[in-house]
Batch of 2 targets.
Target 1
Amino acid sequence: MDARIEQEEAELVARVRGDLPATRGEAYLNNGTFGPLPRPCGEAMLEVTRGELAEGRIRQDYHERSHELREDVRAALALRLGADADEIALTSRTTEGLDIALWGLEWQRGEEIVTTRHEHPGLLMPLAALQRRTGARVAFADAPEPRSASGWLAAFQAARTPRTRAVALSHVLWTDGDVLPLARIAAWARSEGLLTIVDGAQAAGALEIDLHALGVDFYALPGQKWLLGPDGTGALYVAAQRLALCQPTFTGYLSGTGLDAAAAHFQPAQGARRYEAGSLSRAQLAGLAASLRWQAALPEGWAARRIAALSRRLAEQLGAVPGVRVLTPTRAETAGLVSFQLSGHGSPELAEELGRRGFRVRHLPPQHDAVRVSCGFYTTDDELTGLARAVAGIAAGL
């Protein structure tokens, strides 16, 4: 990187951080749980809340304005994700979207869903409930060693049986940041007549995503992580050709049109709107819309490129520390999570000590046992270098 480009990059990062108050002080390295809220997001939420406090929520145009806000968020998400607005259902979290997809399908006893052992409980628990209630069976594709795109595809192929109906997987594993070859898996699944249900919690906002190009059937995501939106926001993408296959399980005022109360019949709403059972917080929706607008003003593709570069750099720096084992695979496509272990140090205690030293990271549950670092596009090189030095100091007993 020449001096001029490096200076422009530094100025852009400084401008971005100026709009992210939470990045001041401690190094904010837990984007994979909650991203920092941009200032325009907070201002939009406050504006809605103050208006509702001052004017109430029964103005004549309240519902019209709420509808416009929902459509604004839907359109912004569709643009960001390479989808059509009619394919986007607004949700309150990733797991709600996964539940909509899973429970909207008609399952027969003995049918199989293949997943991985690295999935978040937000996917594994709905799968377990589905298995208990319907008799469908959950099967597991073993993670390849060493990790590779072709190895992952082969693992899903090996786990498939004549009873397999769907694959349910993360785009980016929450445990170690591995980016699964989603387009290849989805193409294979489609060729075999299988559905693809995706947890995009650690990918949406961290990777450049084109859902039409990926060829998946269902893709659930949160607003509060890499999209830097408020808690209680999210979305589910349902490919247009799968709308008729996935029936609304939970319904409400927003789910349909033409209700015939006498016949207990309704016409589903247009597109994926049919999966929206009720209203969401207007303040939270306004915040998500503002966050998406704020990010859309950044240079195209810059955030994802920077996230990838920073995570590769951190993995290299940590890998050079004696006693550190970096768990995150290094491949061409990289997301923002870097997980590692330090010999002789428990992950909860290590994360706590790093927190005392000014680095806000998180540790994973015992079955995964690692410290996880999230590299946001707002993260600085100095913060990552400081983190690696802090880990080296802890390893040396300093």
Note: The two ends are 34 Å apart (CA to CA).
Target 2
Amino acid sequence: MIDTAVVVCPRTDAPEANLLGMRVAGLPLLVRTLLTARQAGIERFLVVASAPQQRWLRPQLDGEARLEGRVRWLEPSEALAAPADSLLLLPSVLLDSAALRSWLARVGHNGSLATPEPGAGPTAVPAWYLPACLEAARGGESGLARYLTQVLDDGRLSRVPWAGASWQSIRSPQEVPGIERQMIAAFRSFEDGPIVDRFVNRSLSAHLSRWLVASRVTPNQITLASLLTGLLGAWILHVDGLPASLVGLMLYQLSMVLDHVDGEVARLKFQFSRLGKWLDNIGDHAVNLAVVGSLTWRVAVDGTIGHMAMLGLAAAIGVTGSFLIVFWWSLAGQRPEARRTGPARLAARLLSTLANRDGFCLALWATVLPGHAAWFLWALALGANTYWLTWFLVYGLPPRVSQR
């Protein structure tokens, strides 16, 4: 696969030249372009920019450890030595890293000029085409599109289909808010619940993420805030009465919203990590266990303490069993329906669909707010244990070969 990218900054007379200093989702356009390509598997970068452009673009990369030692700056007049194939990119074109990686794998090193379509998208360029492509790209998106259309008409351009999220061209600062909203919406997962996650948590998290992504707050700090907010809400839930219940539930809901925010900010700023995934999931589970413990304390009264403690323990086992089985499959990068067909596949898809917190959240609000916290514990003790036992008995653990 191609491992070198040439990022071309347009001439000052090109419309896109005024966009180079603009930030999208907390990152300058040039930095976002480089990190996207890095995430797609690109190891080395050649940034072509005039001397004046370099003077104010170079500081954008200061302190960016993920690109340290990987970027070489060149002026347009300098001779450019490139490998057999390189990836040509324009900073004004936003790409999805997964889609770009997939496209690069299909292109390979075929030695031909290749692009998804004659436009401003990614272009695989052999060494002998590079000077002409660079000159065209210096004219911005329109200049590159005209050149690629010409070579396509001459039969010198191969078209490699693009799959996944399409690229997005930025032409003015006014487009940025809409593009940021689209980027965040694309992060929605099959693991999201169809009701609470979709209509409440994701709606609120989108606004918070757009605000926090422009700050220096890290995803792990947001994860910690989610944990502390959830634990505080759980602690308040041990107090009987409508006011305490409402405050505790609202804090728990805010914790769920922040749980989405940390993932959205991590992806927007390319700060996701395996450690962050562990912290996120373990923090969620800790909050859920705290809710169970707090409600067990709340409903325990003289003469029934032993019975309520057993009920709370059964609920905690159900929550923990469901968390462990789902998280284990998640770490393995598999879903239970992956290698199944027919009714077994439908059953596995149903189990995957239920592996979200909508049920937990809806049951919590529906029982605690009207003062029936014991009903919530019974629902967990019966439902959660049935869920993880069914999953384990039918599908077991993910194959060891898929562990990462």
Note: The first helix runs from residue 29 to 39.
